[in-house]
User: Which sequence fits this backbone?
């Protein structure tokens, strides 16, 4: 059974269509009808809303946003496109969104098209083994490719996708693109692949295609580390543990990102069972100068080691940070000091 939420991008861009508009209160009716009449729209009142016939949907959304409804009202006005004059049916309701949601969608239309066309580029950043100074593995990082060929930052890409309720689809294509890119670049070291736990409902369904791509590319499960991103926002630890356990049962390793950032505390760490713990850049930056950060690091290392975790410090930029962390015997390191994310993975790193 396929997971449609992960694998089938919903129809988001409509052209010539009928539109049902549901208004939040009766006092909106007169002003709405006046606007429709002034702009020669063909409309008919139905219950608490209106059917508007044969409009260019994007233009109509822009008209409603700019001329009729304010920012508060946009959240309560509901819009349902009915393509090609189709009658209202239950399956149509999947496209029933607030006006503010449609506005966000069209403002981020480039991101929607990036997702639709799977225009994702994978960059690889090296992870270094502290004891040997050798490359231990690579984190696969995703970037959106704009029409002009330039890259869209992951922050903007994922924030826009979340606003458009497309995280499920984006998270999947990023995982799969990371795997295919690693295979193309003949990566033989550990491969850290990011995933967002809130973009996975049921692991056995939502992760089917990811496993299929790993098999197609002949990448062994022991090589792969699935890394939880946005871990500071996790509230359902049982759900996340189910995902981590699913990966482990399949032979993969798991990592928890952003330890020390936001709400990622020692107590939350102890509720989870990853194999790797990544100490956030907010703790690592200038740690050799900051006693409070040093105390936090010591606490995470101590508690992580108690439950058998491998400690990875990320965001290292200076040799001072490097030498301090080496003295603390963290297991792995990652950061610009060793190499920036690149399409072709670096194979050698500087010695310090």
Assistant:
């Amino acid at each position: 059974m396929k997971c449609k939420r992960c694998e089938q991008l919903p129809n988001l861009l409509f052209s010539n269509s009928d539109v049902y508009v549901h208004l939040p209160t009766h006092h909106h009716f007169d002003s709405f009808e006046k606007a429709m009449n002034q702009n020669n729209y063909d409309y008919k009142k139905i219950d608490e809303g209106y059917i508007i016939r044969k409009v260019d949907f994007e233009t109509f959304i822009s008209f409603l946003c700019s001329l009729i409804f304010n920012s508060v009202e946009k959240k309560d006005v509901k819009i349902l496109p009915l393509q090609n004059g189709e009658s209202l049916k239950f399956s149509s309701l999947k496209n029933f969104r607030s006006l503010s949601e449609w506005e966000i969608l069209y403002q981020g239309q480039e991101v929607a098209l990036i997702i639709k066309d799977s225009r994702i580029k994978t960059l690889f950043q090296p992870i270094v083994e502290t004891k040997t100074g050798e490359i231990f593995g690579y984190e696969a990082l995703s970037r959106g490719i704009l029409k002009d060929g330039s890259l869209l930052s992951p922050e903007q890409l994922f924030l826009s996708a979340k606003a458009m309720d497309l995280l499920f689809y984006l998270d999947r294509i990023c995982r799969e693109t990371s795997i295919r890119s690693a295979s193309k670049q003949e990566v033989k070291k550990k491969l850290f692949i990011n995933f967002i736990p809130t973009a996975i409902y049921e692991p056995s369904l939502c992760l089917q295609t990811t496993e299929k791509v790993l098999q197609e590319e002949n990448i062994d499960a022991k090589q792969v580390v699935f890394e939880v991103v946005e871990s500071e926002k996790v509230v359902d630890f049982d759900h996340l543990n189910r995902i981590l356990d699913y990966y482990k049962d399949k032979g993969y390793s798991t990592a928890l990102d952003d330890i020390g950032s936001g709400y990622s505390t020692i107590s939350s760490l102890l509720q989870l069972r990853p194999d790797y713990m990544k100490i956030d850049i907010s703790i690592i930056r200038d740690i050799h100068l900051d006693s409070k950060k040093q105390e936090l690091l010591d606490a995470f290392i101590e508690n992580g080691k108690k439950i058998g975790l491998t400690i990875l410090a990320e965001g290292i930029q200076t040799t001072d940070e490097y030498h301090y962390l080496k003295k603390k015997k963290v297991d792995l390191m990652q950061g610009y000091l060793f190499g920036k994310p690149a399409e072709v993975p670096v194979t050698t790193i500087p010695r310090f």
